[in-house]
Amino acid sequence: MLDKQQIRLHNSEEYTITVSDYPITEISRILDVLQAKKIILAVDSNVNDKQPALIKELTNMSEDASLYRVPAGESSKSITEWKNLADFCLSRNPDRKTALIAVGGGVTGDLAGFAASTVLRGLPLIHVPTTLLAVVDSSIGGKTGINHESGKNLVGTFYQPRAVVAPLSVFETLSDREFLCGFGEILKYGAIADTDILTILSGRNLLELRGHTELLKSIIQRSIKVKADVVIRDTLESNLRMILNYGHTFAHAIEKVTGYGKISHGEAVYMGMIAAGLLSDELGASLDHSLLEQHAASMLGSEPLPSVSGDELVDAMKSDKKKTGSTLRFVVLKQYGRPYTEEISDTQLVKKVWETARQRITDIRSGTTKNLNQRTTPAT
Amino acid sequence: MLDKQQIRLHNSEEYTITVSDYPITEISRILDVLQAKKIILAVDSNVNDKQPALIKELTNMSEDASLYRVPAGESSKSITEWKNLADFCLSRNPDRKTALIAVGGGVTGDLAGFAASTVLRGLPLIHVPTTLLAVVDSSIGGKTGINHESGKNLVGTFYQPRAVVAPLSVFETLSDREFLCGFGEILKYGAIADTDILTILSGRNLLELRGHTELLKSIIQRSIKVKADVVIRDTLESNLRMILNYGHTFAHAIEKVTGYGKISHGEAVYMGMIAAGLLSDELGASLDHSLLEQHAASMLGSEPLPSVSGDELVDAMKSDKKKTGSTLRFVVLKQYGRPYTEEISDTQLVKKVWETARQRITDIRSGTTKNLNQRTTPAT
Fold this sequence. Notes:
alpha/beta, two-stranded antiparallel ribbon, 17 helices, 7-stranded mixed β-sheet
């Protein structure tokens, strides 16, 4: 498989996504194309501390490089931090060719993306995602954003990067929890589109992919392709892009009820997909969920599940700021690989599905269901 | 000439610009197309006070309308005011179909445009420009922006409105100074592209156009067409769009040296065009400037010209934050209607041209030059 994937958005914007062991070579090439002599690095403070060699190489790419440390953590997605970063950019006397390079996970990418889109009405933006979640999800699709007192990501722009360059070696240094966090989305791409992802991962311990560079790269590239294919056809998020929210109506509500950050986004999405799978069955499908459910132990560990009642969950879903209309909207499956959206007004059904999903996850982890790696029906 | 002008940007964004005596009918039609049931009006405080009938009609367009007063004046183009407006929008529980309608001049349009582009990653935006300057200039082209302590418009986005609807009757109520302010840009469109604008206005007292509705509408529409034609071919402001800056390298510097707001933008642009015309001659043209210069008395009145030395002017030009590279860039003319850009490093030439221009304006106004309405050579 090639290192580089060409992404075309609208008819006028196009950029490459590269997963590479030689990210500096690729970024330098892009800076040449952009004629960017001056660069500003917005670097997650943890990455800055843990990846000194990478940061030094990035800084050395230009004689006029400056570095802004983005404090690690969701609280950096604030108007205050955006203003700080914009002030920093403007203090460097930027021109329209000055490149802003975001080095970090979703927080850094969302914040720096918003700054890039708003300083001088747009600085060229390069994403260097350093988490698995960022490379397969937030760095693709052009969403930037910060949080507002009334909700997450309520302030932001649609703004496409000029390139995404993922430093493959960095992913192999992630902690278990950080590494697994990306697999919520990776498994999702398998569930909604490229079911080969599920087949390839079947029977494997997900953590062991850190030692299989080529396999990891291939899984990342397949995931990027699913997201990019959807985003290309629906840049401004009207309908098609909704399918990327498989498991997310549940996941966002779980995160909201438990308090953001208590459980990882990957864990929440994984639980959400178990629930969405059961909802799909309630709506008429009859699916074999084993390719997804077999990863319950590695995705969720053995800790007790968060105590979220059906009532709390539905209340959180109803208060979602980005909801349009009064019904709840879910992405569900006809089959694995064939998603559709469904408006549901019967909240009792949603509550029942969630309670069933909680029980099912508990059963799978304790080995009391046959579904764990033991197919009873052929995969669809 | 039709009321409506169709503007297509990129291949995906398209909107109409309408100059109409029946703006409410047109805006209501657009809200229907957008399926916008909820509307938020961002209204310049002066317009709110002086045009109660218009504001009432706008508010009555929706059962869920709310109004935010934008304090009149350039100081509203601030991060603070942007945050206030974003907070207000979010407090109204907007969804992606909630329309933000900007009612006012350039300040309101730039601020509300920036808010529209950044709330929920983009609310549909409708411009209702109430100044002549806004309808022929700032409402077209998708530039939004606020000021930063280090310079004007340094924070902002490119974001296209879904429609521009200009309420023609409002322009006839503008004060002399407000009305004339738009003619800096209108005469510029004549100078760089549609020389018929200059011919149509020749021999006329510009202020008297307030009583000639059809003629005023025609001049506005011709101006919009010039700007739209350029913007369509260069949405993100690379090179072609530069020609819209005819007179502006001088004008921005004049405004900076005299202190923003002391002289109107229209006056500064007019003086800048006199200077740019002389610079064109220095660079090899030999132009008859009478169609432009004949309006010196109405555009600049009889007050003493601002005391701006050549040194101050060049210093201000050099500190322009949006400048790329070390030379100064000017738009100049081969002929009227045929602009080009020129990089100039000889600052002595620029100083000399400015001193000559100052003297020339003084002479024209005092009647000591023959050029005022007395052609010595045929118009080019």
